[in-house]
Input
Amino acid sequence: MKEQQRRPTLMDVAHAAGVSRALVSIVMRGAPGAAESTRQKVLDAARELGYRPDTRARLLRSSRTKLIGLSFSSSQPFHAEIVDAAYAQANSRGYEIALSAVANGRTETRAIESLLDLGAEALIMISPTLGGDEMDRYSDQVPVVSLLRNNVGRLVDSVSSDDHAGIRLGVDHLVGLGHSKIVHVGGGTAVSAQERREAFRSEMQRHGLEATVIQGGPGEEDGLRAARFLRDNLPTAVVAFNDRSALGLIEGFRAYGLRVPADVSVLGYDDSQMARLSYVQLSSVSQDAPLLAAAAVDRAVDRIEGTASPAHVVRTPHLVIRKTTAPPAA
Amino acid sequence: MKEQQRRPTLMDVAHAAGVSRALVSIVMRGAPGAAESTRQKVLDAARELGYRPDTRARLLRSSRTKLIGLSFSSSQPFHAEIVDAAYAQANSRGYEIALSAVANGRTETRAIESLLDLGAEALIMISPTLGGDEMDRYSDQVPVVSLLRNNVGRLVDSVSSDDHAGIRLGVDHLVGLGHSKIVHVGGGTAVSAQERREAFRSEMQRHGLEATVIQGGPGEEDGLRAARFLRDNLPTAVVAFNDRSALGLIEGFRAYGLRVPADVSVLGYDDSQMARLSYVQLSSVSQDAPLLAAAAVDRAVDRIEGTASPAHVVRTPHLVIRKTTAPPAA
DNA sequence: TAGACGGACTAGAACGATCTAGGACCAAGG
DNA sequence: CCTTGGTCCTAGATCGTTCTAGTCCGTCTA
Output
């Protein structure tokens, strides 16, 4: 067994560099008040010893961790894309991201508490399901940013995508291609599902078309079921609640010998990685995960550093046209 | 702006209950050495004040964080399943999981360092790509467990799945169904790809069959390309490197009007969530994410708590037969 | 009855950082 | 020659806990 060597502390570095702890502290956090020559000497000693500051001790004394907590759901691929982008943005603003997953037996509350225990100075929650009151209670402790959901507590920031605009883009695209018999397969009780249903109805009405909405859900199975239902009375185009549902729809249609997009166009929502796969090539409304993530991190940092009060950022999605939408058969 | 009120400390509780800090500490962590009557008095005072122990301070003093660092890749759905299970297992052994993703511009090194900064007492790395020397260097500081890869540094634990056994199960299954013309679509340079190729060759040989291995890769596109290649000289069954490749194969075969499994059987590997979807129903070799995750967490905890030396756990995968494998056409 | 023992409790030193107050030194100004 | 003001640096207090080494006091044992 190798001796588990103690992690070096400020004291060790100070000793090695021949200065006081306080000075090492000054150098390590880049504060003014150290001569350039000693600064180098200290940095060298620190590197030499492999010193890394102890987050807990630092937090205990200063209440700064430069840590932003991010809660996400491990089963949502779209969340993974946001996580990616959030890391990059946090990095460029000098913060670190602490991750906590909402998983099977692990509630959102649990995820958040663990982030707070780690000393997160702000919380970003992707599609939070907590009630407004609870969110507000956490907001008393640290700034909270809700991502992809905007009608949460009064004290919470939100960064969301304009669902109405997204659906409008989709409907305009399909109508522009010449479609008039368009159906929306809803998302059931999922977050944003209601907004998208209503947007679809209103946009179809604007075009003077009849809006048919059928039940669905957020998964592939839901799309598959919807395809079975639609077979008897086939529209020329379908706007799905999300990409997973769209994939189910396509799969279902194909099983009945229908071709996409020749017989029926299918439009997804999310522009997830699946949609981009070469054998899928799904046309989809993109919420642009990197932009959303960046905006959320920016809000968090602004709230931490300034005294900015809660704000609500809404981003407009855009359309990505691939190969599952085309003009209807003549 | 609301007044940020100071959080009550041990001192406050001690004062309210008329005892010393130390005694409150004893009561709060349920340690022996306090009379039942005072214990109640202290608990009442704590509840009254809404006292919650400060994790940072507590851990600073006891130099325990009860934190296990887990690095994963945000773009791998299979990793997400492991994350899920790891949370549960860590929880049941009294530890927390700190997550860190390897993402686009974020290297594995970076991910690990941030985990160490948070004070992780052990590291679990899923499919690590670092060299053995580097892994060993981290092992000097904390126990390191490599998950899904076993030929890493001398000082690291590993928990992996027996690839040879997995392929054997698959080949036995197909041969048992009556197949003899079986092809393996490889995983290129991906982790485990070589092991599976070799296992396939040796297992086919054991059955006295000719082993055909064609190039592939870990993605859907690779499967799609392989399908194109196989069309002219169709085998009766294909063993794919993983589920994603299998899905690409199926998609490709269908595009050519071939039915799965009537015309050709396809077997995946990983038993990912995709495989389980109702419209996919892919037969697959399951590495059983929950079991692997649990074993990795167990190794980590054992190393932290005991003085157990590095060990290598190998789990035997099992077969999940769904609807993409069937006897060959007569 | 003295000494040992053990249960209930406490004072004060850690833990590893930051912060405050101030010292040493040097150059410029009166 | 003494002050003033700036830069560079340090000692010591501090954050909220836990740990160590006691003290105190009643009871058991020889």
The first strand of chain B starts at residue 67 and ends at 73. The first helix of chain B runs from residue 10 to 17. The two ends of chain B are 78 Å apart (CA to CA). Chain B touches chain A through 52 residues (CB under 8 Å).
